[in-house]
Fold this protein.
Amino acid sequence: MKKPLALCAVAVFIAMAAGCGQQQPPDTHDADVKAIADGENQMGADYAAKDADKVASHFADDVVAMYAGQPAIRGKEALRTSGKQAFADPGFAITTQRSVIEVAKSGDLAYVQGTYQISGTNPATKQVEHDHGYYVTVYRKMADGSWKAVSDIATSEVPPPTPPPASKGKH
């Protein structure tokens, strides 16, 4: 009876020793939060400079951006083109204020939540219009350790304009 018990004890010891030898991945949470915050700050400066190339550099090649009143923008090149069009408008300006940066325990995904204010010239009225609302940006850690936005979603707080009343036509 002692021999099976001794074998069990040896097996348990080996299993425990093997488990202790496994290293946990390093905790990079604080560094990741700082890297994302620094990247968002730089992106804000790039938006203020109206530099579409630098703004696009913050996004992954396969990004999907969803903004109120327009179709989804798919891919970094489409985002760069959209940015160049927006930046050509002298009335364009955007600011953001983040409220949350959350990094997954796995260290490979994160999201940022915040508010935005944006202005731009309405092509029909030639007047500068203002919008504000909320955004969520999802980031993925790239193979080189950098963080790139893979999804960017903004929701306006400004209600859409009231449609004109239906005209009464003759039948």
Notes: The chain has a mean pLDDT of 89. The CA atoms of residues 141 and 147 lie 4 Å apart. The domain at 27-156 is CATH 3.10.450.50 (Nuclear Transport Factor 2; Chain: A,). The chain has one domain: 27-156.
